[in-house]
Amino acid sequence: MGERPKIKPKLTTADTVFEILGWILVFAVWAFTIVKYASLPKIIPIHYNLAGEADRFGGKANILTLPLIATVLFIGMTILNKYPHIFNYPTRINKDNALRQYTIATRMVRYLKFSVVLIFGLLAVETVRNAESQPSELNVWFLPLTLGIIFVPTIYYIMKSI
């Protein structure tokens, strides 16, 4: 494998908006979790089965792991997105196709990092709802929804890249 060109794709307005919305969502998940923390019972659900039912419980401090993991993943993917020349691609990268391939790949990562924060935010909301004995709204739909949010766009971007 030869040296790949190190090109930084220009952000479109849509890319910038998505980036800003991602950061807003990170802060919203933290704000929601912190605001709800004091009113949570000492024991909250910390794991759900495939039917969306809580099947393991722990201390309320566990709720903080959701925004923490979301933030670490978001920042990690943000840093990674600055180096598209190190990504894996379904085609050989050369100076003629590098900009197009890097643009597609960085857009996909931008979407995925937003999706990860959204999923962890939904988990935080669901955990708070369950802890407050409110009816669950995600139930059996959460896993297929999560898989769809992640894999459908990923497959689209890979097909576009090919």
Identify the notable features of this structure and list them briefly.
mainly alpha; 162 residues; single chain; two-stranded antiparallel sheet
Structure description:
- By secondary structure, this protein is mainly alpha-helical.
- The chain has one domain (13-161).
- It has helices at 13-37, 65-80, 98-131, 142-161; strands spanning 43-48, 54-59.
- The chain has a two-stranded antiparallel ribbon with strand order 1-2.
- The longest helix is centred in the last third of the chain and has 34 residues, at 98-131.
- The mean pLDDT is 92.
Which blocks of ≥5 consecutive residues have pLDDT under 50? Answer: none
Amount of helix: 55-70%
Give the strand order of the largest sheet, numbering strands 1, 2, ... along the chain.
1-2
**Number of structural domains:** 1
Order of helices and strands: HEEHHH
What is the total tally of β strands?
Answer: 2
In terms of DSSP E residues, the strand content is 5-15%
Global Rg:
19 Å
Distance between the termini: 18 Å
From the spread of the alpha carbons, the general shape counts as elongated
Task: Supply the helix-strand structural class.
Answer: mainly alpha
Query: Quick check: average pLDDT?
Result: 92
Largest sheet: 2 strands, antiparallel
User: What is the helix tally?
Assistant: 4
In short:
The protein has 162 residues and is mainly alpha-helical. It has one domain (13-161). It contains 4 helices and 2 strands, in the order H-E-E-H-H-H.
